[in-house]
Amino acid sequence: MVNIDLMVLAGDYVKTAVISEWKVKIGDSVKKGDVLLVVETNKITQDIEATCDGIVEQILFQEGDDVEISKTVAIIGDGSGFASAPEEKKPAIEITSSEAASVDAGVRTVITPVAKKMAKEKGIDLEELTKMFPGKRIGKKEVLAFEEAPAKEDTIIEKLTVENTAPVEAPAVPVTKIPVKGMRKAVATAMRNSAYSKPHVSMMIDVQLDEMLEMKAYLKNKYPEKRITLTGLLALAVRSALKECSYINGTATEDTIALSSAVNLGIAVDVEGGLLVPVIKNSDAMSGLELFESVNKVAKGCREGTLPPSDYAGGTFTISNVGATGVKYFTPIINSPEIAILGVGASTKEVVLVNGEVR
């Protein structure tokens, strides 16, 4: 018998993960390396694989559960230790008159916690749900069945026979509700905590990019097989500047400022559902080309979800470049516990005075 946990996700800031999807069910035969489930942390989405051959005997958590990575989520054995699915193991909740329809005397209707949560997320009225399944145990299957069932004729008639004296209201506008969980919730929490706990002072300046653009063109011509980007050149400039301005290269808590001798450079990357910051460790020890390749590599791995949790930890300074959106000025939020962040906006061609000359 082998216990399956989420310790593969272990990292500096990874303590829990949300189970987003089970790929197996109790009784399934699996081989070592088969994907058992998919989990989502505040940084990545990760497949959890079987560590041995066997039969799935127990599944201890439901989809949507937030689980400590050290906890056992499933048990694989020889088939002799079967247990009921977690929905059956969790105690059912009896529907009271305050939140459910009254049913015939003596008829007891119960709904599992998972089904109750699912119904609320889908906007399903618990009273109508229990009317459809009087005296039954309502689980996920019943919620889905209710959602797919056509409206009952008597319900439609009831809605059409509302008194004419009732106030006329504007028709309801369809609303899309997006659950705030997983990466989105983690990013929101981290940004809120940083904004509330760190005094943010923003200083903005326009910088001439002529030389940087000339350098980009030169390098692209010299290394046509390499991907030379402005973000890569910014990383090169920032890591050099941080060696001179070491007092903003590190982390800070309420009681301690820890200045780092190495520049672990975070690159903010926009991904579907959130904003991630992979970290290029020891960027100050890399050659220019190595740094360019690292910037491209972490950005790609971030968007594809292939970076391990350790690649998102240990940053000492972050660059957030929103130039591609056309935004010129913005106030980035510090990537806590770091001390500072550089926000870079869009480049534009403008007429300026340089030493009294128009350029």
Explained architecture:
By secondary structure, the chain is of the alpha+beta class. Helices cover 27% and strands 20% of the residues. β15 and β16 form a beta hairpin.
Q: Show unreliable segments.
A: 84-106
Structural class: alpha+beta
- How are strands sequenced across the largest beta sheet? 1-8-6-3
Radius of gyration: 28 Å
What's the helix count?
9
Shape designation = globular
Mean pLDDT reading: 82
* Largest sheet descriptor: 4 strands, antiparallel
Q: Distance between the terminal alpha carbons, to the nearest Å?
A: 75 Å
What oligomeric state is this? single chain
Number of strands: 21
Strand content: 15-25%
SSE layout and pairings?
Elements (H helix, E strand, L loop, with lengths): L1 E3 L11 E7 L6 E2 L4 E6 L4 E5 L4 E6 L6 E3 L5 E4 L8 H4 L3 E2 L15 E2 L1 H9 L4 H7 L4 E2 L1 H9 L4 H8 L21 H16 L12 H13 L7 H15 L5 E3 L4 E3 L5 E3 L1 E3 L2 E3 L2 E2 L7 H17 L12 E5 L19 E4 L8 E2 L2 E2 L1
Parallel strand pairs: 10-11, 14-18, 18-19
Antiparallel strand pairs: 1-8, 2-4, 2-7, 3-6, 4-5, 6-8, 9-10, 12-13, 14-17, 15-16, 20-21
Helix pairs in contact: 2-4, 8-9
Tell me briefly what this model is.
The chain has 359 residues and is an alpha+beta fold. It has helices at residues 86-89, 113-121, 126-132, 140-148, 153-160, 182-197, 210-222, 230-244, 288-304; strands spanning 2-4, 16-22, 29-30, 35-40, 45-49, 54-59, 66-68, 74-77, 93-94, 110-111, 137-138, 250-252, 257-259, 265-267, 269-271, 274-276, 279-280, 317-321, 341-344, 353-354, 357-358.
